[in-house]
Design brief:
With 231 residues, the chain is of the alpha/beta class. Keywords: DNA-binding, Phosphoprotein, Transcription, Transcription regulation, Two-component regulatory system.
Length: 231
């Protein structure tokens, strides 16, 4: 069985060591680096299954490291940061992170979030319906196994969570999902301050789908209820 490798990128050795200690107790292998540039190099040279990135790192911060990682890789990314405002969290999620944990943190909560992200990543990388290689609706073509999306023939780049949300909604067109439903199914976690997280991801997903350029609104808001795929 393949061992799971977690990247820990933090310029505070005490924090990186603490995270490593708890993750290794769970059976994970860890790779530790001290800045964003080293994080990118580690992902290029190791088989990394999930990355935990501090935001305020030297040489290359977590935001920019995530943007560069997202250009080539689809692994889950968790931000770990002392930046605690709602705007900080939204900025982190929009830049491509799948989760955001604030310092000081409970190591066991972080481990639980790592487990949840890995569980969701594994689930969404498996085909949901045997023999169904694509989903097509409303000008959108989704290839679940390759995790690629085309809109009117043009490929678009989505973060793992944006892809998971789109795939969930498009798998059951016209079905209305509440923010809580989406959060629980995509994040695989208890609904905890998830409403803004889902809203931010839906907003950026709509922009990437080009809804401003097309009359057809692919993701429809059902006021007071939730969201549905309108393909």
């Amino acid at each position: 069985m393949k061992s799971i490798t977690i990247l820990i990128a933090d310029d505070e050795p005490e924090i990186a060591d603490l995270i490593e200690l708890h993750l290794e107790k769970e059976g994970y292998r860890c790779v530790k680096v001290a800045n964003g540039q080293e994080a990118i190099s580690a992902i290029q040279t190791h088989s990394i299954d999930l990355a935990i990135l501090d935001i305020m790192m030297p040489i290359l911060n977590g935001y920019e490291a995530t943007r560069q990682i997202r250009a080539e890789y689809h692994l889950p990314i968790i931000f770990l940061s002392a930046k605690t405002t709602d705007l900080d969290k939204i900025t982190g999620l929009v830049s491509g992170a799948d989760d955001y944990v604030t310092k000081p943190f409970n190591p066991m909560e972080l481990v639980a979030r790592v487990n949840a992200q890995l569980r969701r990543s594994t689930q969404f990388n498996q085909p949901k319906q045997a023999g169904k290689l694509t989903l097509e609706a409303g000008g959108v073509v989704i290839y679940p196994e390759a995790r690629t999306v085309f809109v009117y023939g043009k490929p678009i780049e989505l973060t793992p969570k944006e892809f998971d949300i789109l795939y969930l909604l498009a798998s059951y067109p016209k079905k209305v999902y509440s923010a809580e439903n989406i959060f629980q199914q995509v994040w695989g976690d208890a609904y905890y301050e998830g409403s803004n997280t889902v809203m931010v991801h839906i907003r950026t997903l709509r922009k990437k789908l080009g809804e401003d350029d097309h009359k057809n609104k692919l993701i429809k808001t059902v006021w007071g209820v939730g969201y549905t795929f309108n393909g």
